[in-house]
From TrEMBL:
This is IF rod domain-containing protein. The lineage of its organism: Eukaryota, Metazoa, Ecdysozoa, Nematoda, Chromadorea. GO terms for cellular component: intermediate filament; nuclear lamina. SMART domains: Filament. The keyword Cell inner membrane does not apply. Gene3D superfamilies: 1.20.5.170, Single helix bin, Vasodilator-stimulated phosphoprotein. Residues 23-163, 192-226, 290-370 form a coiled coil. Belongs to the intermediate filament family. PROSITE patterns: IF_ROD_1, IF_ROD_2. GO terms for molecular function: structural constituent of cytoskeleton. InterPro entries: IF_conserved, IF_rod_dom, Lamin_tail_dom_sf. Residues 33-385 form the IF rod domain. Keywords: Coiled coil, Intermediate filament.
Length: 443
């Protein structure tokens, strides 16, 4: 007795989750079938041993049958002649069905290998897609960081530009103040020269008055010389006092004017020098600030250019990755379509194989029924049981056995899987034409 299991999976739906579930169920069914085939191979080995024993018994039974045929007479010979051709044809059909089934098993194994290859390609595409998605997220984060840094540098550059404008305005204002101070210095210099001229004029006028006074004194002295002695002495004293008073007053006025002039001149010169130094210091500071800001602006422009180049490069890489992702998605969809087409083709082929196996099984069962009828007829020679009763009994038994040996269809997670169990028995000589090294398939 050899029992063979055949499964025909049919996957419904095209979503990735259902496809993965169907593939998993298909792999589990494949592993189960492998284990069953190994079990069948072990059972086949035991069966071969039993067949050898049965062949030995068969030879004895054949000899006994020949003896019985010689005893039974003409009816037994006629039955033998009538059914020997049918039995030979049935044996040939059974052998051909076994060979066809082995070829179909090899074809199913090849189709399973193709399915595994498509599944590996599908998983590889999924891994590549996940890797590309991670690269896109990484480049997107880098672009966001570069854009934020670029915005910060733009704000800093705008701030430095505003400071440069402010420093430029302050510098212009300080240059105006310096120009104004220089103009004031020039005016003060002109005023000093004017005052010096006035002092010179006053000194010349004073010298003129001194000469006039000296002339008057000489005239008074001449008059005094002509006057009496006591009058001359009196005028001499008065004249000396008057000259001394005039000289003191002149010295005081000259000294006071000189001091005022020097004080005013020193004050103005100090103010002009202070303003000039302050303007010069502020101008130097502004010049240094402007130079520093120009250097910073140059650095920022260089960084800005580098960031723009980096941003352009990242955008190109993102565009390339988008193209690659689109291509991978297209390949992924193409692989899915190919996988679905392959699954549909495998489903159709499996259904066709199931139909062929069912047809072969029906043929085999018919042959088994005929063999059983022949056996019953041979065994019924002794009791002379009617041929019609034996045929009806065998056909009824065969129909009941066929109904019990076909099981049902079950629905799991939207996935329809049909499992049909075939059981067949044969009696006679067994010849092994071909056998795989692992013992999986035997013809």
């Amino acid at each position: 007795m050899v029992t063979e299991m055949g499964s025909a999976p049919a996957v419904g739906g095209i979503s990735p989750a259902l496809s993965a579930s169907a593939a998993k169920s298909f792999l589990e069914a494949t592993d189960k079938e492998k284990k069953e085939m190994q079990n069948l191979n072990d059972r086949l080995a035991n069966y071969i041993d039993r067949v050898k024993n049965l062949e030995e018994q068969n030879r004895k039974l054949v000899q006994d049958l020949e003896d019985l045929r010689g005893q039974w007479g003409k009816d037994t010979s006629e039955v033998k002649v009538r059914y020997s051709t049918t039995l030979s044809t049935a044996r040939k059909d059974i052998d051909q069905a076994a060979r066809d089934k082995a070829a179909l098993d090899v074809k199913v194994a090849r189709l399973r290998d193709d399915l595994n290859e498509y599944r590996n390609r599908f998983e590889d595409i999924q891994r590549r897609r996940e890797g590309d998605r991670e690269h896109i997220i990484q480049f997107t984060n880098m672009i966001a960081d570069a854009q934020s840094e670029l915005e910060m540098l733009r704000a800093r550059w705008k701030q430095l530009t505003d400071e440069e404008k402010r420093f430029t305005g302050d510098n212009a204002r300080l240059w105006d103040d310096l120009t104004k101070a220089r103009n004031d210095l020039d005016e003060e210099t002109l005023g000093r020269i004017d005052f010096q001229n006035q002092v010179q004029t006053l000194l010349e006028e004073l010298e003129f008055l001194r000469r006039v006074h000296e002339q008057e004194v000489k005239e008074l002295q001449a008059l005094l010389a002509q006057a009496p002695a006591d009058t001359r002495e009196f005028f001499k004293n008065e004249l000396a006092l008057a000259i001394r008073d005039i000289k003191d007053e002149y010295d005081y006025i000259a000294k006071q004017g000189r001091q005022d002039m020097e004080s005013w001149y020193k004050l103005k010169v100090s103010e002009v020098q202070g303003n000039a130094n302050r303007v010069l210091m502020e101008s130097n500071y502004q010049r240094e600030e402007v130079k520093r800001m120009r250097d910073n602006i140059g650095d920022l422009r260089g960084k800005f250019g580098d960031l723009e180049n980096k941003n352009s490069q990242l955008e190109k890489e993102v565009q390339t990755l988008n193209y690659q992702l689109t291509d991978d998605q297209r390949q992924y969809e193409q692989a899915l379509n190919e996988r679905d087409a392959t699954l549909r083709r495998l489903k159709d082929e499996c259904q066709q194989l199931v139909a062929e196996l069912q047809s072969l099984l029906d043929t085999k069962q018919m042959l088994d029924a005929e063999i059983a009828i022949y056996r019953k007829m041979l065994e019924g020679e002794e009791s002379r049981v009617g041929l019609r009763q034996m045929v009806e009994q065998v056909v009824k038994t065969h129909s009941l056995q066929q109904q019990e040996e076909t099981d049902s269809t079950r629905n799991v997670r939207g996935e329809v899987q049909t499992k049909t169990t075939f059981q067949r028995s044969a009696k006679g000589n067994i010849t092994i034409a071909e056998c795989e090294p692992n013992g999986k398939y035997i013809m």
